[in-house]
Amino acid sequence: MKDPLVSISLVAFNQEPYIREAIESCLMQVADFDYEIIVHDDASPDKTPQIINEYASKYPEKIIPIIQTENQFSQGIEIIARNVIPKARGKYIAFLEADDYWIDPKKLAYQIEFLESHPDVSMCFTATKKINASKPEEFKIRRYRRYDCVCPPEDVILIGGHLLDMGSVVVKKSIFDEVPDWYYSSRMWDNTIPLLSTLHGQIQFLNKVSAAYRVNTPGSYIQKNVRYLQKRKSHILTTLELLEGFNRGTDYKYDPLIRRKTRLISVGMLLLSNPDEDIFKKYYSQLSPGLKLEYKVFNFIGWHRLWERYRQILSHFRKIKYI
């Protein structure tokens, strides 16, 4: 194969039940350009690596396997920028996680057609089908808007990881040419990659349903963080570090938005912290009077998950999301 126009980043860990469907959904793409599929397995103890190698043997010109023998994520290594992008030959990068899959065979075709005709756009994403892994018959359609439109930096910052599902995203590979240090603060790509893309052009939403996103898959990162509160606290702290690094890296261009977002999500961290901790004193001092009262009320109640639920309800009426 000559150099492909698109490189698909497909990342996997312990996804034996789903990896075939993810790979097949990439292979079914109908396009008049070449694309490659870089499948990264993070040292899965199940049969995920064997299935990846099976497909790589069957499609050697199309599939590039990266099979790790030691887990990269647990070592703090950011997989896409560190391991996948150096192997990618495409002008554009599409993303997929192994427990998700594409449902439109022309997904790549129309996204690449749009990007090729709009050089000022660094990233585009679409609507997705959100499926409950334990009840596949239940699903919702997740849309940013009900029409095609540009997504402003304000929404990238305030909505954060709730803005999109990474399985719908295509970016210019050039956004990774010089990756700033703040990018590596978090390994949640639905936060980091949109922020990085804002530095290189506009972000476009296309109102088509292109991908399926599974929730509540066994052992998923989200599931583990909801269950274990200290991991939840650590996740909030890395998000705060990411936003503050982005703020410094952009010379405080978006400072009011960053401060608004960090003040809100820090409440969740404070409810999981001891008031004697230095990190508590730092972020509590930055809260508005209203958020200080909110913290005191939910701290008195003593149930962190109730505060999360409260914020999720409010988010239906506001742009800003909890995290």
Fold blueprint:
Layout: E1 6-12, H1 19-27, E2 35-41, H2 48-58, E3 63-67, H3 79-84, E4 92-97, E5 101-102, H4 107-117, E6 121-132, E7 135-142, E8 149-151, H5 153-159, E9 170-172, H6 189-198, E10 202-215, H7 221-227, H8 229-249, H9 255-270, H10 278-284, H11 289-301, H12 304-315
Parallel strand pairs: 1-2, 1-4, 2-3, 6-10
Antiparallel strand pairs: 4-9, 5-10, 6-7, 6-9, 8-10
Would you kindly provide a brief summary of this structure?
The chain is α/β, with parallel strands linked by helices and 323 residues long. Helices cover 40% and strands 21% of the residues.
Please explain how this structure is put together.
- The structure is a single chain.
- The chain is an alpha/beta fold and 323 residues long.
- It is 40% helix and 21% strand.
- The chain folds into two domains: 6-215, Spore Coat Polysaccharide Biosynthesis Protein SpsA, Chain A (Alpha-Beta Complex), CATH 3.90.550.10; 228-315, no CATH class.
- The chain has helices spanning 19-27, 48-58, 79-84, 107-117, 153-159, 189-198, 221-227, 229-249, 255-270, 278-284, 289-301, 304-315; strands at 6-12, 35-41, 63-67, 92-97, 101-102, 121-132, 135-142, 149-151, 170-172, 202-215.
- Helix 7 (221-227) crosses helix 8 (229-249) and helix 9 packs parallel to helix 11 (289-301).
- The longest helix has 21 residues, at 229-249.
- It is globular, with a radius of gyration of 20 Å.
- The termini are far apart.
